[in-house]
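Summary of Year 1 activities. Much of the first year was spent building the evaluation harness for sequence design. The harness presents a backbone, in tokenized form, and records the residue chosen at every position. We chose the following record to illustrate the format because it has been used consistently in internal testing since the harness was completed.
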């Protein structure tokens, strides 16, 4: 049975949908009030999901050169192109913060096919520097991480990893500059809560993998047993 607060929240959410009916995040088509994922059927069929995962991993590892890999596995749901690329750009840079629910649901559905969720203790997002988060208004990876944690019943503890140093936007840098840009930019705030834990590390887009790898290095250096990186999309052509 729902608690009073849960019941009240569901009423408020339903009323909100009456005033602002849900729309497909890709094409803005109006959807039914009962939808869980804000994507129309036509657009869902256009999502560039990664099908040949073995080929993707081979391509990613080929692009890492001599970089030591600190995460144990990595999962990317889609290729960073088409409607996924357009929607992530709107999500990050044009205030479409509510997209996080749909992205998290897509990621959760795919993750459940790939791993045993019960093996993981905590979920952590790649942190933004406070200055960039204030400018944007939110940390796009944290919103997704929190929703993923709720859906999959994993404790969300992004507070355990912070970005201490302001860094340039990775996508604007040459590949060789990206490693130095994020090196030693992160810090674990409480090693006792990380030690021995299995961690899901969440970000939005994978390019060279340097940011995820540096975060994973800090978590492993603090005693994490394993770190699985999870992203919405991979842009390995960059």
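For this record, the design step produced the sequence shown next.
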């Amino acid at each position: 049975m729902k608690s009073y607060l849960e019941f009240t929240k569901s009423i408020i959410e339903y009323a909100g949908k009456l005033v602002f009916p849900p729309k497909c995040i890709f094409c803005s088509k109006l959807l039914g009030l009962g939808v869980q994922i804000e994507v129309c059927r036509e657009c869902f069929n256009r999502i560039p999901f990664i099908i040949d995962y073995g080929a993707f991993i081979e391509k990613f590892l080929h692009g890492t050169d001599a970089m030591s890999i600190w995460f144990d596995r990595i999962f990317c749901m889609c290729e960073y192109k088409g409607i996924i690329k357009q929607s992530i750009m709107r999500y990050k840079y044009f205030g479409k913060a509510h997209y996080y629910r749909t992205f998290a649901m897509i990621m959760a559905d795919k993750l459940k096919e790939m791993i045993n969720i019960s093996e993981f203790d905590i979920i952590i997002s790649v942190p933004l520097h406070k200055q960039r988060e204030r400018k944007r208004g939110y940390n796009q990876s944290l919103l997704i991480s929190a929703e993923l944690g709720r859906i999959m019943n994993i404790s969300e503890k992004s507070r355990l990893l912070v970005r201490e140093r302001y860094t340039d936007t990775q996508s604007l840098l040459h590949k060789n500059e990206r490693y130095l840009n994020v090196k030693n930019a992160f810090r674990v705030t409480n090693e006792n809560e990380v030690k021995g834990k299995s961690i899901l590390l969440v970000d939005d887009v994978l390019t060279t993998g340097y940011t995820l790898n540096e975060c994973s290095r800090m978590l492993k250096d603090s005693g994490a047993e394993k770190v699985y990186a999870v992203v919405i999309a991979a842009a390995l052509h960059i």
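The radius of gyration is 18 Å. Quantitative recovery figures across the full test set are reported in Table 2.
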